[in-house]
Amino acid sequence: MLLHSSDAVAFHKIVELDFIQARKKMTQQTVIENSQTEGVRKMLAEAGYSQRAIQYYIEKPYMGSIPDAELKSEMTGTCGDTMGVYVKMNNGTIADVKYEVLGCAGAISAAMAAVDLIKGRSLEYARGLNDGDIFNVLEEIPVKKHHCIQLAVKTLHKAIDEYNGVKDSG
Question: How far apart are the C-alpha atoms of 41 and 7, rounded to whole Å?
Fold first, then answer.
């Protein structure tokens, strides 16, 4: 079917108008999201989180699961936060790590920091990870959230111990 030139112009204007409206809507959504993000940043900073911890919480760069992970584990902390960890190996090296976290900003930021510390390293190195290592990456989180760091470490250690055949690591 051939369009007359006036039909083609009208069609082009409709497509262009739809594009402009879609772009305007996306811009408005971005403004709303940025406003919300800034509100979250402010609230967390006032609560005692460092900018680095806040960035981990907002971006959640390693949140999710790995379906074919060789190491998997889950733990629930005393506060009720729950974490699952998934580790994919490649020739003795940690190739990928993801955490699923149902919990607070402290739990999420601690899990994300743990990944940055162990990705590309050996399981032996990861098993040596401790609370202080994660705290040093986060720089600062509220004292009442330090147990979140412990949960991230214990969940990872549990996965490694189960993979290595250790029944109960404490």
Answer: 50
Task: Enter the pTM of the model.
Answer: 0.78
Contact 103, 85 (CB under 8 A): no
Angle, CA 98 vertex, CA 140 and CA 44 arms, to 5°: 30
CB-count exposure of residue 2 (10 Å: 0-12, 13-18, 19+): exposed
What pLDDT digit, counting tens, does each position of 22-63 carry? 566 655 555 456 668 889 999 999 999 999 999 999 999 999
Q: How far apart are CA 149 and CA 129, in angstroms?
A: 11
Q: Is the pLDDT of residue 167 over 60?
A: no
Query: Within a 10 A sphere around the Cβ of 97, how many other Cβ atoms?
Result: 26
Question: What's the pLDDT score for residue 170?
Answer: 46
Longest dimension (CA), the chain: 78
Average pLDDT over residues 4-9: 59
d(C-alpha 118, C-alpha 52), whole Å? 17
Q: Is the dihedral of CA 104, 110, 116, 119 positive or negative?
A: negative
> Considering only CA atoms, which of 112, 93, 95 is closest in space to residue 104?
112
Q: Which two tokens stand for residue 24?
A: 């305007």
